[in-house]
């Protein structure tokens, strides 16, 4: 069993207080650290930033119900990394194939912005996840926070492996592929187009499966 944060994790006081507020306001939401989705024997790990308030924090599955999830799951389905139908619900029956999804920070942060302390505190869970994946060949980091946290987890220097969309760094047995985050902001502003994201998912799959 991979250590997951407990539902009432209090490592980050600000995030725990925000969760408490949200639990009051939205008692039907998941309102906890969102667990990893997918199997530990996968060759590809997708690392996002953190749950969205009314997306993954509501549904309890990474990217599920989030704007970013519409694009991510569409591409995973297109590239055969998921199977079934994505219906924005954790019980939609969608299965991941050779891929697993987690977040650099497991709890929803205010304004989608985790603090450096929170990224660091949550890294123990990312580290446990990576260590528990014996077949891991590639990591697709969505955004700079995820990229940097993966570098810190793997103990490599960020100055040597800077975040860049489409970069693929061979780090020992794992290739780190990085992408702009597939957020609503990045897609609405054209920072990340669907074609760019399609290409980077394809690149990550190739690195994982070769
Ligand atoms: N939902 C997640 O679970 N992670 C993100 O990075 C964005 C939305």
Automatic annotation (TrEMBL):
The chain positions of domain Uracil-DNA glycosylase-like read 35-201
Q: Does the keyword Iron-sulfur apply?
A: yes
**KW Hydrolase (keyword) present:** yes
Recite the UniProt keywords alphabetically. Answer: 4Fe-4S, DNA damage, DNA repair, Hydrolase, Iron, Iron-sulfur, Metal-binding
Record's Pfam families? UDG
Similarity comment: Belongs to the uracil-DNA glycosylase (UDG) superfamily. Type 5 (UDGb) family.
Q: What is this protein called?
A: Type-5 uracil-DNA glycosylase
């Amino acid at each position: 069993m991979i250590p997951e944060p407990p539902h009432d994790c209090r490592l980050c006081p600000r995030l725990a207080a925000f969760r408490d507020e949200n639990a009051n306001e939205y008692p039907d939401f998941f309102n906890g650290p969102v667990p990893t989705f997918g199997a530990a024997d996968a060759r590809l790990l997708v690392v996002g930033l953190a749950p969205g308030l009314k997306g993954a924090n509501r549904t309890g599955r990474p990217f599920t119900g989030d704007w970013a999830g519409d694009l991510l799951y569409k591409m995973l389905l297109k590239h055969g990394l998921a199977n079934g139908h994505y219906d924005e619900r954790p019980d939609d029956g969608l299965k991941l194939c050779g891929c697993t999804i987690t977040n650099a920070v497991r709890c929803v942060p205010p304004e989608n912005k985790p603090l450096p302390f929170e990224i660091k505190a949550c890294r123990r869970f990312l580290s446990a996840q990576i260590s528990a994946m014996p077949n891991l060949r590639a990591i697709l980091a969505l955004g700079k926070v995820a990229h940097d946290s993966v570098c810190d987890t793997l103990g490599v220097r960020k100055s040597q492996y800077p975040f860049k969309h489409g970069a693929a760094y061979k780090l020992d047995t794992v290739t780190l592929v990085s992408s702009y985050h597939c957020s609503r902001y990045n897609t609405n502003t054209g920072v990340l187009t669907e074609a760019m994201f399609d290409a980077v998912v394809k690149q990550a799959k190739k690195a994982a499966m070769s």
